[in-house]
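Quick one:
INPUT:
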């Protein structure tokens, strides 16, 4: 996900999804201050918040997230909960994980992010480190859809999918 604009928090940026994020355009907008043990103090403006009406799997009570991009970990970014900044999910663009990743997105998932027919969406894969092998894996069976124009997100479960829940990253 390429940030349109960002605000800094030391070596992290919070991704913005609006076209005009100049100080003049944000005049009157008060940022939400998030205190995160992992990322420190984050100033999050309204144009930097993604709404997940259904939450994420296992975290259905959390509905607002921002994308934090630590410079040292690029292209890895983090979905940080604005409701509970202690909750953060490492994510990568799904095609970074698997170049020919092209899942069939169910119509109800596109509706959940208010996508227009043919409108491209950001597709992210939640990543995790396997504790037994300390290898990095991506969940390609439960991608996160983001409509950056509407600032809406939705995690879809791809039933009967050939994609893996634990796609090994960096294996070749």
């Amino acid at each position: 996900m390429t940030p349109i604009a960002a605000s800094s928090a030391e070596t992290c940026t919070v991704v913005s999804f609006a076209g005009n994020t100049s100080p003049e355009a944000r005049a009157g907008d008060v940022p939400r201050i998030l205190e995160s043990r992992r990322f420190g103090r984050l100033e999050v403006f309204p144009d930097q918040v993604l709404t997940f009406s259904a939450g994420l799997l296992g975290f259905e009570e959390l509905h607002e997230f921002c994308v934090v991009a630590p410079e040292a970990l690029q292209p890895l970014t983090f979905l940080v909960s604005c409701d509970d900044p202690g909750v953060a999910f490492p994510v990568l663009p799904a095609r970074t994980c698997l170049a020919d990743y092209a899942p069939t997105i169910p119509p109800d998932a596109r509706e959940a992010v208010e996508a227009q027919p043919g409108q491209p969406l950001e597709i992210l894969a939640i990543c995790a480190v396997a504790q037994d092998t300390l290898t990095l894996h991506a969940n390609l069976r439960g991608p996160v859809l983001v409509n950056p124009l509407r600032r809406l997100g939705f995690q879809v479960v791809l039933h009967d999918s050939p994609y893996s829940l634990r796609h090994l990253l960096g294996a070749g």
